[in-house]
């Protein structure tokens, strides 16, 4: 097994700079805060710019289907930046989860290829109809049934990125077994609820005999699992972005705040906590890069790299956000300060696509450290 | 990347391959005595290829060294047993290369690299550990520009009992602030004023020594760097030490986690749910630490070192301690036994050797040796994160006036 490439290429650095500039201009923390409590937490104009002008919607879509033909490495860089801005955007749901599931379908057939084309241009956005907490390797869900005419019945809870999506990619069990189906969002019943993470709204989705288009493929379960694996692996990069912002902002704040006649950041007990946190973020970045590279190269080691990255980075993001709130003192506890947006994102991300404990359980099998038999 | 100094062109892998073949043809490893072969390898510029020509290198990119090492290992050529001479290779050599005179470089580097002359480091003192710049070993110059006469005590000196030479820092001016009054020397360990006593440690053995210096004579030609500039020279040594301790990139599941992972697989009767989750957490942390070190290595290889290197030793210490503690606990009743408390003098440092109890105890040193974890956190906070230093009273006062 050769060593993964853990660095950022020049192309990736350029992509990062473009996304960062746009988000700094169009998605500053106060704008996010003002938007998240409204009816439309996503800024459709921002997503159109990200999707169409920067080409982010089609990053993982092959060029022959109108996409960028890039890899998980580039998608990871985008997620670092989106995480760093807690930007409400359907990138994870549409450009990573739904797109990867569609790429596992039969692309010679019109259905999946057509939808990928529409997603790649940003003309439409899709959501993958699974709970955000779905874990790679946890089996094909049985909550939605398809009848012989392709009508769907059932319910999926806690789906991310439905708000802002036009299309749902729905795993459902039909007469021929597991399959993926394309459904217009307008055909389903979408019930938003108030989610812990204000910047990634969730909804429960019900299907009551609504019309769906089957997306043929050899193995829908494998396509779904590939999507969850890619999502979990790339979520680690989002967590690195969240953690890095929390660290940078806390260091900046403690470098200017005075108490006891001193800069607060000169107290050794605080410096040591920040040094430890810095080391965690540096380590999480290496783990997230390894997962992105393994996904990008189709490495057989990808399941291990993803389980390692997700079980590590999830904890680091939560720790960084908790430290940011604590070390900001009173201001960190206010609604006005954006630290809580990062805390809520980090805590929800810890559950998203498999908790650290579930990823460690997966790892136990992968690296032959089996659980005790009672 | 900058052109290597001292060469008109960049040496590539193909040229190194040719030079290795020529060396092996001229000195077939089976027929040559090891010392002779190693000297020839040094003279061929294949010792450390990134060093300058004439000093064991070819001014080649450091990343090409593994090419040479692999080809020579495949030919069963003798090596210089780098673990035995780690202080010389990792700390003395880079410092001599950077600050030494031409005469010093040519005198010291060849036998240092071949292992014919072992080196040790006389830095820490009983009263100067983390506050190394407070050291009190004195070097006083004989009148009329003569030799330096050194008196004092050093501690935690590995290899002092086998060393031919030492790198030494001593106070040459007590009347200026402490960082300004230190000078860096090469000390002859065969001087009659040098007394080495084993220092027994918590593992039972004596890896290190105490070194007593009484009227030790050092010629001015063995000074490294300017008088009073020893603190700056020592920084180069210490940065190399931390990279050497924390910067090794091992294969997956090598290092400290290998022991408990193997015990878990081989002995199902030891398994409990609680230990399982701790073992998996440790396994993940060890793998992430490995990837972090690998990322630092890749940054260095492309010539853009990041600040991440500063944290490697901190992680290394914390993980070694946690995982070795987990292993003793995992072993249960067997963890109650300890191999052997006899005082022995190991030939080289081994963090992962002997039994779980030894590893647990030895790992306690990892957060002390080469800069304590507390000092490393200060360094990260101040030099990487840019946070201000604690207010200090010792930086500007003359060393002789500091409370002690």
Automatic annotation (TrEMBL), chain A:
Q: What sequence ranges are listed for the domain Acyl-CoA dehydrogenase/oxidase C-terminal? A: 228-365
Source organism superkingdom: Bacteria
Domain Acyl-CoA dehydrogenase/oxidase N-terminal spans what residues? 12-91
UniProt KW keywords: FAD, Flavoprotein, Oxidoreductase
Protein's recorded name: Acyl-CoA dehydrogenase
Quote the InterPro entries the UniProt record gives. Answer: AcylCo_DH-like_C, AcylCo_DH/oxidase_C, AcylCoA_DH/ox_N, AcylCoA_DH/ox_N_sf, AcylCoA_DH/oxidase_NM_dom_sf
Give the organism the record lists.
Actinacidiphila yanglinensis
Q: Name one Pfam family in it.
A: Acyl-CoA_dh_N
The family annotation for this protein states: Belongs to the acyl-CoA dehydrogenase family.
Q: Which cofactor does it need?
A: FAD
A GO molecular function annotation here is: acyl-CoA dehydrogenase activity
Quote the PANTHER family the UniProt record gives.
Answer: ACYL-COA DEHYDROGENASE (PTHR43884), ACYL-COA DEHYDROGENASE FADE28 (PTHR43884:SF20)
Q: Does the UniProt entry include the keyword Electron transport?
A: no
**The keyword Oxidoreductase is annotated on this UniProt entry:** yes
TrEMBL record, chain B:
Source organism, top-level taxon: Bacteria
Where does the record place the Acyl-CoA dehydrogenase/oxidase C-terminal domain? 228-385
Q: Which GO terms describe its molecular function?
A: flavin adenine dinucleotide binding; oxidoreductase activity, acting on the CH-CH group of donors
Family annotation (Pfam families): Acyl-CoA_dh_1 (PF00441), Acyl-CoA_dh_M (PF02770), Acyl-CoA_dh_N (PF02771)
Keyword Oxidoreductase listed? The answer is yes
- Domain Acyl-CoA dehydrogenase/oxidase N-terminal residue range list: 34-116
**Cofactor(s) recorded in Swiss-Prot or TrEMBL:** FAD
- From which residue to which does the signal peptide run? none
Spell out the SUPFAM superfamilies in the cross-references. Answer: Acyl-CoA dehydrogenase C-terminal domain-like (SSF47203), Acyl-CoA dehydrogenase NM domain-like (SSF56645)
**Gene3D superfamilies associated with the record:** Acyl-CoA dehydrogenase/oxidase, N-terminal domain, Butyryl-CoA Dehydrogenase, subunit A, domain 2, Butyryl-CoA Dehydrogenase, subunit A, domain 3
Q: Which InterPro entries match?
A: Acyl-CoA_Oxase/DH_mid-dom (IPR006091), Acyl-CoA_Oxase/DH_mid-dom_sf (IPR046373), AcylCo_DH-like_C (IPR036250), AcylCo_DH/oxidase_C (IPR009075), AcylCoA_DH/ox_N (IPR013786), AcylCoA_DH/ox_N_sf (IPR037069), AcylCoA_DH/oxidase_NM_dom_sf (IPR009100), Mycobact_Acyl-CoA_DH (IPR052161)
Q: Tell me the ranges covered by the Acyl-CoA oxidase/dehydrogenase middle domain, including all copies.
A: 120-206
Which key words tag this protein in UniProt? FAD, Flavoprotein, Oxidoreductase
Q: Does the keyword Transcription regulation apply?
A: no
What's any one GO cellular component for it? plasma membrane
What family is reported?
A: Belongs to the acyl-CoA dehydrogenase family.
Protein name per UniProt:
Acyl-CoA dehydrogenase
Q: Which organism is it from?
A: Actinacidiphila yanglinensis
Please name the taxonomic classification of the source: Bacteria, Bacillati, Actinomycetota, Actinomycetes, Kitasatosporales
